[in-house]
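User: quick one, fold this
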Amino acid sequence: MGESPYDVLLTDFHLPGMSGVDLLKRVKMEHPDTIVIVITAFGTVASAVEAMKSGAYDYITKPLHHQELGPVLPACRGAD
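Assistant:
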């Protein structure tokens, strides 16, 4: 386990070949300090709970507007 090359990872909930939550779990296992934000066009309470319980810093539904993401990224600095 080494230092993560990224501070923040934005990932979609639905990815080809794996889910965003699977990616989230893998990233958090290998680089626990990396902040992961999950984005989805198909938001449900169940998927939001799954993402947050798996270590997501935030869960944002599409369409993604910079007004929504803008406040989250600066807040990530104090998440450690």
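User: anything notable?
Assistant: Helices lie at 20-30, 45-53, 66-76.
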